[in-house]
Amino acid sequence: MNWKKWVGLVVFAALVFGGYRLSLFSNALLLPNTEADIAAVKEIVSQQNEEAFYCPERKPFEAQPANPLKSVYFGDLHIHTSISSDAYLFGNRMDMDTAYRIAKGASGTIRAGERIELTRPLDFAALTDHAETFGRRIGCDSPDLSDAGIGECNLMETPSIFGFLELRGGAQQRPPVRRYDAFNGDPARERNFAADTWQQIQEAADRHYQPGKFTTFAAYEYSPALPDRGKHHRNIVFRLMDVPKHAVASFDAMSEIELWKELEATCENDCQFLTIPHNPNKTWGLAFSGETIDGAIYTEADWRLRERNEPLVEMLQIKGNSECSVAFGAGDEECGYEQFFPAC
User: Are strands 316-317 and 233-238 parallel, antiparallel or unpaired?
Assistant: First the structure.
């Protein structure tokens, strides 16, 4: 056999192997979505040894007596339900009532069959779904959904990494792409459905509020996206149920400056709010840089606007620690104290 035939065989084998690996990779990017897929995952879950890992003892709720000085309360101000498109894409079908019940100490079962529960009921909670996806579930469930809307909503029902990246790609454009297919191409319909979702969030918070035992807040997440999986997100939390009619999404306010101005303009009467930067470690330096996502430099008035409305910052979330940087050359030698680093 001459060398040309050998080269041909090698190329053919490489193509076959490459095609096989590509098919495995493509399948790995498709998340379980059919009943058969979910049943297979549940079967794997059912065979897990739940005793193989440390499980803290569950404790009942213990109300703290009133303290005129200081009390420590434990809660969660960043919770997603099926309202958020990213959470829905990755299998979250939890509604608002279920989320609040789990926060108050109930057990629940997620779509894959895993049981979830807290070791201790929370003192407070806020559901902070992405304002950018408000109304989308209502639109997708509408009986008069257009063909384009059906195609858009099918992206959510047959989730994949490719679908997620498509949605994210539009979100990180400047200005971000506002998709109307799920609303039959009608901006007014989108606006009304988004307002309906915001109203449902308020009603759920009011429904689960238990004075002296469990505090709820009407809230949402303002979610501008950055390249390379970055984000410049903020949780918007209202003190009372006197809130603006519409949540402010990144389509409505192109920067945090516009966000604060819009909130101040629409938060009237007894309305009070604060914003909390979410995942500052994923803002690629923008969180405290003194400039907006589009490069506009803060003025003194902008700093005062921020001072009035943003007294807190998130330190730790599942995506990382935002308190300091352990990156090479960061210059903070003590940043490694009490840090958890996964095994290489």
Answer: unpaired
- Rounded to two decimals, what is the model's pTM? 0.85
Rounded-to-integer distance, Cα 208 and Cα 103, Å? 10
Cα(108)–Cα(188) distance, integer angstroms? 37
**Is the bond leading into 175 cis (omega within 30 degrees of zero)?**
yes
Q: Report the DSSP pairing between strands 225-226 and 230-231.
A: antiparallel
Closest CA to 77 of 209, 198, 246, 220: 220
Q: Pairing state of beta strands 233-238 and 219-222?
A: antiparallel
Alpha helices in the chain (DSSP H): 3-29, 35-46, 85-89, 96-103, 136-140, 147-157, 161-171, 187-208, 256-266, 300-309
Nearest to residue 134, comparing CAs of 299, 297, 251? 251
pLDDT by 10s per residue, the chain, length 344 = 566 666 666 666 666 666 555 554 445 456 677 778 888 888 888 888 877 777 788 888 888 777 888 888 999 999 999 999 888 888 889 999 999 999 999 998 888 888 889 999 999 999 999 999 999 999 999 999 999 999 989 888 877 777 777 888 888 889 998 999 999 999 999 999 999 999 999 999 999 999 989 999 999 999 999 988 889 999 999 999 999 999 999 999 999 999 999 999 999 999 999 999 999 988 988 998 899 999 999 999 999 999 999 999 998 888 777 877 766 666 666 676 666 666 66
Residue with tokens 């958020």: 84
Distance CA 208, CA 235 (A): 20
Half-sphere exposure of 161 (CA within 13 A, CB side): 7
**Amino acid code (one letter) for 190:** E
Is the distance from CB of 234 to CB of 259 less than 8 angstroms?
A: yes
Rounded Cα–Cα distance for residues 144 and 263 (Å): 34
Q: How far apart are CA 174 and CA 163, in angstroms?
A: 20
**Whole-angstrom distance, CA of residue 128 vs CA of residue 217:** 9
